[in-house]
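Lecture 7, part 2: worked example. A protein chain together with coenzyme A.
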Amino acid sequence: MKIKGDIVNKNVTFLIRYNERVMSLTLTPASTFPISTLADLMTRSFEGYLVPVTITEAVLHTMLRRDGVDLTSSRVLMKDDQPIGLALIARRGWTSRLAAMGITTDFRSGGVGTWAMEQLIEEAKARGEKEMILEVIEQNTAGVKLYEKIGFKKVRRLVGYKLENPQSESAHLLEEIDIRDLARQVTYHGLKDLPWQLSGTTIMQHTPPSRAFRLNDAYCLISNPDGTDVAISSVLVKARSRGAGLSGVLLRTLFAKFPNKVWHVSPIYPEEMGFIFEQVGMVREALSQWQMTRAL
Ligand SMILES: CC(C)(COP(=O)(O)OP(=O)(O)OC[C@H]1O[C@@H](n2cnc3c(N)ncnc32)[C@H](O)[C@@H]1OP(=O)(O)O)[C@@H](O)C(=O)NCCC(=O)NCCS
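Predicted complex, written out as structure tokens:
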């Protein structure tokens, strides 16, 4: 049974008419729940999503560490004693990122998401932050509507790519480097408003079996190349060497070094960087995202 969306009271406790009776919703710090409960709640909160989402404890631990998710600022949405949704908040300096936001199916489309987002914005302001950012799948109508209604503005479109078993030859050699060195270069030479997951700070949190490589002034980070599917998690060319096709040489050399792979680029790359992947024949993924920001 769907909620009716008849909002009775919009204060810190949200009263809403459900199944012909009034229920109260509250937000509780996610840090008071076991990781296993949060992982299960996140999976349930993303049921029916545009891409299948299964969050295990291990996946959640990686999100917490890599993306800087702060469980004390993240919230579990409670209907009385029942968790019905989750908002993960990552924090760095004056900025927070809505790293995940989901409500279990029975409680969607009734104003709960709007109320929760309003609370999260007020909480971020109270923490002294100046900006909240997020990424939302462009084709996720409810998500985009919700965030625009709350005042988020589009920064740019983020795109992803894929390529199966490229046949590549290269006379060049890649030098393997510490992921920390790549992260420093991204912080110094990358766009200042890169999406959270591409920022030098996030790249710094990647660890083996991921690997970083360098070819002259070009750098990349990939997931474990022992598997069949490999993700390209970062590509950078130093400012002084841009425009000379170095990123293409780097990627072709990478494909030649690790043959018979399916290469993936998540839809977190600024659209203006898409040429890097298109020049080596990678095919754009159907799903794209909006990078969004809201001043606080
Ligand atoms: C996205 C989500 C969090 C929104 O929460 P919600 O409680 O359903 O949102 P609300 O009821 O407050 O609706 C917010 C806006 O979205 C629109 N909306 C809600 N459900 C919709 C749907 N199924 N289709 C189209 N628009 C929808 C509403 O019209 C509303 O705008 P309005 O009040 O101006 O009419 C929720 O649908 C969800 O958990 N979805 C699965 C996970 C997900 O997509 N998370 C976001 C990823 S970043």
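The first strand starts at residue 7 and ends at 10. The chain has a mean pLDDT of 93. Keep this in mind for problem set question 3.
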